[in-house]
Amino acid sequence: MDNLLLIVIIAVVALLYFWYAGIVSKRNKAREALSGIDVQLKKRSNLIPNVLTIAKRFMEHEKELLTGVTELRTRTDASYDAADPNAVKEHLQAASALGSQMGRLMISVEAYPDLKSDETMLQAQRTYNEVEAQIAAARRFYNAAVTQLNNSVEIFPGNLLAGFAKASVMPFYETDEGSKQPVDASAFLN
Question: What is the reported pTM?
Fold first, then answer.
């Protein structure tokens, strides 16, 4: 009987250890995915000054939009605590808002024929589109990793072990509310 009890205790401890290790692994995978988003956001952030410099030569009437992009870029570049779900959420919201504003800027370019045909601006737009595609891929990877982490943290016995693993529910990278609104194409037609 003592041997059976010892085997059961060892099995329970082993099971809890593997569950704990799984949570830690998923937490680290989500942080890795968040880091991947940050790399892509930094690429976009490094591209923005070039786009703004080119655009400023042509877009005097869009000063408010250009200033808004600059302010959001500063917020997105600010450091944050990747272990704090609220800080991560704020960081991702700022990044999403910046993406939305950059989208507005790129659409606004269409209203300026000289800017639209400028070779430097065309190259900047192509590069920007590539970076946005990479951000979208990183966002999908992050959201998949967060789904796995959140499931393991919220489902029993993970909810009991999450504190020991220093893991908590992480926010998804969602688009900002402005991006969810339907686009009125007539506003962009001349």
Answer: 0.79
